[in-house]
């Protein structure tokens, strides 16, 4: 109840848009005319044809006919909750953004958890990456951290996103997610895309069958840029850590639950919040000042890499509580439109090649998904601060915009705001210059060392589960060439892992090759996760396994 009592400007704003049907005046048409019968249509005589003159019947059917909108192209299956964020440790040396400086603020949030691959009606407990998208309704505008529960991503470049998703989704001929051809396609793509192997290790681990959204980490994945009041820039990775600890299902449980209760995670979140057992997450940052950008064996701009905590510890600076379920799934959870480009002054894009086209993609898809350019006016998407600009018109405009619609003008409003008064001024960054071409940085070519680090950091039982997952998934492939390709790639991560997977598939165990093509020796000798709890504390060393009594 202490949590409920916290005043929340977003809730106050949503209340203005909420229609309470327990206080109705009776059923009316959309245009306010009360209706005496909503069960019988107007007919030309008893047993005669229905008349289109019946405005109410036509309106009722027409509205129903248009209830569905396209599901998200990825992360279609999800569930959301409202909450709030509080900072306890300001970081003025990193950013001037008030949300990360002012400990007196309570910032409203909305979180949407999701799976990536399945349809809107698919099961919750599948082996998949989970989305952990958070919107902060700050006084400087909306800030979205559109995170996943894996700290790394499949691919280094956004231009490959349609390919990885086509390979992950059901194959186009059958649209059967579990078809062998779908497994062939996925592993075919992975086998030919070694940069995805680190991500795939997380994918095949217990991490990707979480026990509950309340027991799952979130990672902003990219290195973002934060800027302090002196204009100094740092690379920052954002982390969420659940107060309940990180827990997973075992595969057998996940399979059974998917059949018995496909809404397992959704129900778990609602039940916990309704029972007053509010999920809570610590918020952490890993900070690398810009001058240290090149101090690592990997590139900070490469989203297939973590920054091991041994090199840069995570500093926990605040926490988020989720304390309210949405009143209307469609209006809130379905219509929220997250985007990585929603950043507030003091937080900016880095040059991560996964990030810029990603920012473009979200807004672009929302133009279709939410039917035009005015989705910012939907209640869940409205910032809590006032918004004035010169954008006008478009489908479903719901504001009456009175006053000047261009700038500069003779009226002096709406006007740009100087940086010292809160206007967004992007920090200047010198560019290296060079040649315009399709290239990637030199450090983007080493793909195996962090996958090996992840494998080495696992306990025996976790290793067993990874072997089991690879064997199960590759065992569903039809194409022997694809399996061989994958075994070759897994062998570059670890020979023992490759041999165990080969054995369980009744295939020839591969011969030991120089680990990681010999490229990663220096990195791996810097960090020894077997002897250190640190390397993966935030990013994955240990996980407790959940064993459900019922199974
Ligand atoms: C949706 C995470 C990369 C395109 C989402 C969602 C999450 C997410 C959590 C669900 C948002 C929601 O709940 O509404 C990530 C992460 C990425 C990544 C962590 C890598 C670091 C990309 C890339 C692209 C992309 C590279 C495209 C180039 C999309 C699209 C949606 C989506 C189009 C659907 C948005 C909507 O319909 O509202 N992503 N994503 N994502 N993502 Fe990503």
Tell the overall outline.
Answer: globular
How many beta-strand elements?
A: 12
Give the oligomeric state. Answer: single chain
**Discrete helix count:** 15
Approximate helicity band = 25-40%
List the secondary-structure elements in sequence, H or E: HHHEEEEHHHEEEEHHEEHEHHHHHHE
Radius of gyration, Cα only, in angstroms? 26 Å
Bound molecules: protoporphyrin IX containing FE
Q: Average pLDDT across residues?
A: 92
Write up this protein.
Its EC number is 1.11.1.6. By secondary structure, the protein is an alpha+beta fold. It is 27% helix and 14% strand. Strands 1, 2, 3, 4, 5, 6, 7, 9, 10 and 11 form a ten-stranded antiparallel beta sheet that branches. A two-stranded parallel ribbon has the order 8-12. Helix 13 packs antiparallel against helix 14 (495-504). Mean pLDDT is 92; it is low at 528-551. The protein binds protoporphyrin IX containing FE. Residues 72-75, 78, 112, 114, 131, 133, 146-148, 153, 158, 161, 221-222, 303, 336-338, 354, 357-358, 361-362, 365-366, 369 line the site of protoporphyrin IX containing FE.
Keywords:
551 residues, alpha+beta, ten-stranded antiparallel sheet, two-stranded parallel sheet, 15 helices, 12 strands, 27% helix, globular, disordered C terminus, binds protoporphyrin IX containing FE
């Amino acid at each position: 109840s202490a949590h409920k009592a916290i005043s929340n400007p977003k809730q106050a704003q949503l209340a203005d848009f909420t229609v309470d049907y327990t206080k109705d005046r009776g059923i009316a048409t959309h245009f306010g005319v009360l209706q005496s019968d909503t069960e019988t249509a107007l007919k030309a005589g008893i047993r005669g044809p229905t008349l289109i003159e019946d405005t109410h019947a036509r309106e009722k059917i027409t509205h129903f006919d248009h209830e569905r909108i396209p599901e998200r192209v990825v992360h279609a299956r999800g569930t959301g909750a409202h909450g709030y964020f509080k900072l306890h440790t300001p970081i003025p040396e990193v950013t001037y953004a008030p949300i990360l400086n002012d400990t007196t603020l309570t910032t409203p949030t909305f979180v949407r958890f999701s799976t990536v691959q399945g349809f809107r009606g698919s099961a919750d407990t599948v082996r998949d990456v989970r989305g952990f998208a958070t919107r902060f309704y700050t006084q400087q505008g909306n800030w979205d951290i559109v995170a996943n529960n894996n700290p790394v991503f499949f691919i280094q470049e956004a231009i490959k996103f349609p390919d990885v998703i086509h390979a992950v989704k059901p194959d186009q001929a059958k649209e059967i997610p579990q078809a062998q051809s779908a497994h062939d396609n996925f592993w075919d793509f992975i086998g030919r895309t070694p940069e995805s192997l680190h991500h795939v290790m997380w994918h095949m681990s217990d991490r990707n069958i979480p026990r509950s959204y309340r027991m799952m980490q979130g990672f902003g994945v990219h290195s973002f840029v934060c800027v302090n009041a002196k204009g100094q820039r740092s690379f920052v990775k954002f982390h969420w850590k659940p107060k309940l600890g990180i827990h997973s299902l075992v595969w057998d449980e996940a399979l059974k639950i998917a059949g018995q209760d496909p809404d397992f995670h959704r129900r778990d979140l609602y039940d916990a919040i309704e029972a007053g057992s509010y999920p809570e997450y610590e918020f952490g940052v890993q900070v690398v000042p810009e001058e240290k950008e090149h101090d690592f064996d990997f590139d900070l701009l490469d989203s297939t890499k973590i920054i091991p905590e041994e090199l840069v510890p995570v500093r926990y600076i605040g926490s988020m509580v989720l304390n309210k379920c949405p009143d209307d799934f469609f209006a809130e959870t379905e219509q929220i439109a997250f985007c990585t480009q929603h950043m507030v002054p003091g937080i900016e894009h880095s040059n991560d090649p996964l990030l810029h086209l990603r920012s473009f993609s979200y807004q672009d898809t929302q133009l279709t998904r939410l039917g035009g350019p005015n989705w910012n006016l939907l209640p869940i998407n409205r910032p809590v601060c006032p918004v004035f600009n010169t954008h006008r018109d478009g489908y479903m405009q719901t504001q009456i915009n009175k006053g000047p619609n261009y700038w500069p003008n003779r009226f002096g409003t709406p006007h740009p705001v100087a940086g010292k008064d809160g206007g967004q001024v992007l920090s200047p960054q010198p560019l290296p210059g060079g040649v315009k071409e399709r290239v990637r940085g030199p450090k983007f070519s080493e793909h195996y060392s962090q996958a090996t680090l992840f494998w080495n950091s696992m306990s025996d039982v976790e290793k067993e589960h990874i072997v089991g997952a690879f064997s199960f998934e590759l065992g569903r492939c039809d194409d022997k060439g694809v399996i061989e390709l994958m075994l070759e790639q897994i062998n570059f991560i670890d020979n023992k892992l490759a041999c165990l997977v080969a054995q369980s598939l009744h295939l020839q165990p591969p011969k030991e090759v120089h680990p990681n093509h010999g490229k990663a020796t220096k990195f791996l000798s810097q960090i020894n996760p077997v002897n250190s709890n640190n390397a993966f504390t935030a990013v994955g060393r240990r996980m407790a396994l959940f064993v459900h009594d019922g199974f």
